[in-house]
């Protein structure tokens, strides 16, 4: 994943994000419901949010836990600005905002854990992340580092995308490439499946082996008038392709046209007009025991 390209994409479309982020809002609401049902021994006093976006989840966390202090991270400084716009000055006093890459930040914090500082001064009771973990280049290492930042009996809860996300688009490209006698090429990123996430959080040689991991997955199907509308909306939530092996499709109008036709033929919307798009949404929750 080209993190600099991810950052530029989110910076460019930060002000438009909320208009197009329908699925991400649903994910955030579901994630918060999972957190409310989590068996926490007491209300969290220190919360870390990884990938705050425009602050929809941040705002709800501040309201739900009025005694907590939030540290919020986002790769995009423009997203941090949008988050601040949502929050009253009084609640901003309970926040620390960092425009940082969560992966490098987590490694730094993991190293700090080895210093002689009491755990209660730097650990988190709750770590939350909505629609961010799919951007990690090193999800196993990063999640293991984040686990080390949890207080005993702390909770990490996250929502991310699963492998069936945009399967219609991937299949339509594959069909188009076959039709045009082109070499099959990946178009977009891949996503970890349930087994991979379980492996990350049940590594018996790592810190996650001290806790319990739960996973819930569901499919969310949306409809768009045209394939172009779907791709436009993806771009406007900053999620234009950022894999380091960039899309080759921009150099082939014929491939675009063939893909669009395959999509319309094979994945028409159930309403009878437009096309369908599948979002595979996974909810993970890790309960730290120590």
Topology, element by element:
Layout: H1 3-13, H2 17-20, H3 22-36, E1 46-50, H4 56-64, E2 69-74, H5 77-86, H6 89-92, E3 95-99, H7 102-112, E4 124-130, H8 139-147, E5 150-161, H9 167-179, H10 194-201, E6 212-224, H11 227-236, H12 253-266, E7 275-287
Parallel strand pairs: 1-2, 1-4, 2-3, 4-5
Antiparallel strand pairs: 5-7, 6-7
Pathway: Cofactor biosynthesis; biotin biosynthesis
Domain Methyltransferase type: 48-155
Keywords: Biotin biosynthesis, Methyltransferase, S-adenosyl-L-methionine, Transferase
Describe the protein's architecture and organization.
The protein is α/β, with parallel strands linked by helices and 290 residues long. 41% of the residues lie in helices and 21% in strands. The chain has a domain at 3-162 and 191-220 and 279-287: Rossmann fold (3-Layer(aba) Sandwich). Strands 3-2-1-4-5-7-6 form a seven-stranded mixed β-sheet, with helices on both faces. The two termini are 34 Å apart. Mean pLDDT is 89; it is low at 243-251. One of its GO terms (biological process) is methylation. GO terms for molecular function: carboxyl-O-methyltransferase activity; malonyl-CoA methyltransferase activity. It is an enzyme of class 2 (transferase). Pathway: Cofactor biosynthesis; biotin biosynthesis.
Task: Write a brief structural summary.
This protein is α/β, with parallel strands linked by helices and about 290 residues long. It is about 40% helix and about 20% strand.
């Amino acid at each position: 994943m080209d993190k600099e390209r991810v950052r530029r994409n989110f910076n460019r479309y930060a002000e438009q994000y909320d208009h197009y982020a329908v699925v991400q809002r649903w994910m955030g609401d579901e994630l918060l419901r999972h957190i409310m049902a989590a068996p926490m021994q007491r209300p969290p006093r220190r919360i870390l949010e990884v990938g705050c976006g425009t602050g929809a989840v941040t705002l709800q966390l501040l309201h739900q836990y009025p005694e907590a202090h939030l540290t919020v991270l986002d790769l995009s400084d423009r997203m941090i600005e949008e988050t601040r716009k949502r929050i009253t000055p009084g609640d901003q006093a309970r926040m620390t905002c960092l425009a940082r890459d969560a992966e490098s930040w987590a490694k730094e914090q993991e190293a700090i854990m080895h210093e002689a500082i009491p755990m209660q001064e730097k650990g988190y009771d709750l770590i939350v992340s909505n629609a961010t973990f799919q951007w990690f280049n090193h999800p196993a290492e990063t999640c293991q580092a984040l686990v080390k930042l949890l207080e005993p009996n702390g909770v990490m809860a996250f929502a991310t995308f699963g492998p069936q996300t945009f399967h219609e688009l991937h299949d339509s490209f594959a069909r188009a490439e076959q039709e045009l006698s082109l070499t099959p090429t990946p178009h977009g990123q891949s996503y970890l499946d349930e087994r991979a996430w379980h492996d990350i959080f049940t590594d018996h040689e790592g810190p996650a082996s001290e806790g319990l991991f739960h996973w819930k997955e569901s499919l969310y199907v949306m409809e768009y008038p045209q394939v172009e509308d779907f791709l436009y909306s993806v771009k406007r939530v900053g999620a234009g392709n950022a894999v380091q092996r960039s899309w080759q499709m921009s150099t082939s109008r014929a491939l675009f046209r063939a893909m669009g036709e395959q999509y319309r033929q094979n994945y028409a919307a159930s309403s009878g007009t437009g096309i369908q798009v599948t979002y595979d949404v996974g909810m993970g929750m890790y309960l730290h025991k120590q």
